[in-house]
Each structure stands twice: as C-alpha cells, then as structure tokens.
Amino acid sequence: MSDQQEVGPTNAPAYAARTIGQIRLHGAWRHELAHHCPKSRLFWLTRGTTLITAEFHPIMATGSKILFIPASMLLSLELPTQLQGHVAYFPILADLELPQTSLCLTPSSAGAQVELTGLIERMARLEDEDTPSARRMKRGFGLLLSAMLERETLISNQRDRDATHRLRTQIKKPSKSAQLRSRFAALLAQGFNAQLGVSDYAARLDVTPTHLTRICREITGRTALALINEVLMAEARRRLVDTDDSAAKIARDLGYSSPAYFTRAFGQETGTTPTGYREQKKGQWHSTRHR
C-alpha cells in the first residue's frame, strides 16, 4: 500500500494526522454528512461539544474524548467552530489490532491526554515526508496510538459502571431497533446505488418500508430515504473534489439512470451543478492547502 496517496480525508495517506481546524477548512461536509472512510480513524477531541452519529446512533460528546471509528463504518460528525482536537488515520493492517467496534472514551488521566496529543502531532509533522525512515516512523506512531487505544479501553472497562466514565456506540444487548439501524447502516456502507430505494433496503432487511422509515425517524429524526440520499450525495461530493472523473461517470457509478437525473438531484441537494461544485471546492481546497 502506498504511503502517499492523493489528498482529502477519505484519501488520506496510509498513516496521516490532521487538526480539527484543518479538516474543517478542507471541507466540513466531508465529516458532517453521513459517509464511510476506507481507513480507521481516531479522533482526539480536546475541547468543545459535538454530535457524533455512528451507524445512525447519536452520541453527544463534551470535553476531552477519544473517538474511534473502524474502517468503512458510516459516520457523521458535527464540526462547530469551538470544537478542537486532532484526527489520525490508520490503514487496515492486522498488526495494529484495532477495535472492530466504534468507541467513545474519556481519557484515563492528564498524562494520557498529553501522550495522545504528542503522538498525533509528531505523526502530523511527517505528513509530507515519503522516505523509508519517515514511513517507518509513521508506522511506529500508528502502533503506539493503537496500543494507547487498547490501554485506554481496558482502563475504561475496569472503571466503575458510572455511565459518565464510559460511552460506547454499541451495547451488549442491542434492541431490535438498534440491530435494524446497524444493519441498514452496514448496507449503505457496502456500496452506492441510486437505483435502490427504501423498499429495496427494507426487503433486504426483511421489514416493511414503513417500519424501516419509522425506526430511522425515531433514532435520527430523518426518514430512510433522506439517509440514503445523504450517503449518495456525500460520495458524489467526494468524487467530484478528490478525483477527475466526469460527472457522467460519477452518475453512472452511483447508479443514476442518467447524467441529467444526477445533475438534477445534485442541484436539489447543493444548489449548484456538479461541475460548478467541483470548480468551487477544488479552488477552496488548493487555497487552504497552501496557507
């Protein structure tokens, strides 16, 4: 796997680190829309309050929090201006022994907070280096961060059962509604197909479209159709900014019946055409990258 792939957060280098400010500048929509990332992510949130939605399960995080999201899990994360911290990206490697579930933990100590900040900042300083030694150093920082995450999880599990000390995005005995939510999110993360509607997903989940929409509305406040469209539009935006694929190719790959239909759907969501969006966002990306 190449250690220096092309730019945005969803195409971040195999090991990479950003500040929350940087990912906000490079496109808050990348994280605020429901999406999946092919790399695992560790968010180290040091200040502020945010709403995290992992697999359509909402968690309000305030203050210092360690948030871990496995690769390809659907996530949306609000990025208000007061939110501060870092995010580290990890490749899919067995020796990292990363968790298979999402986690939201309170750091065990002030020392742990200092360690986390130091490791991520040192990884970030190697961002533009692509030498054998830099790759080894980034891998070393990745291993240290994964070990820290394991340690913090063990400490959290050993604490008393006070819920203020332990926030998890999955529970031991999830309700049927929670199970349906997770299965629906997993289906959406498997691929992108505008031809699939609520009835198609409901059939795969062995429920009625009405039931699926009701559960989505109860948990997220939004309909199943709105969530399907959000995931599609997040991927469309990403490909318009991060690739040189034509709008026609993106429309075809995402399952739209025609480029015209894709353009119309995209315009309803963003207020502009795919071409106009690409020109605007790529201009913003290059300007912020060189600040």
Describe this protein's structure.
It contains eleven helices and nine strands. Mean pLDDT is 86; it is low at 1-11. Helix 3 (110-125) runs antiparallel to helix 4 and helix 6 packs across helix 7. The chain is of the alpha+beta class and 291 residues long. It has two domains: 9-168, Regulatory protein AraC (Jelly Rolls, Sandwich), CATH 2.60.120.280; 176-289, Homeodomain-like (Arc Repressor Mutant, subunit A), CATH 1.10.10.60.
TL;DR of this structure?
Helices cover 49% and strands 15% of the residues. The chain contains eleven helices and nine strands. The longest helix is centred in the middle third of the chain and has 27 residues, at 132-158.
Highlighted features:
291 residues, Jelly Rolls, Arc Repressor Mutant, subunit A, 6-stranded antiparallel β-sheet, disordered N terminus
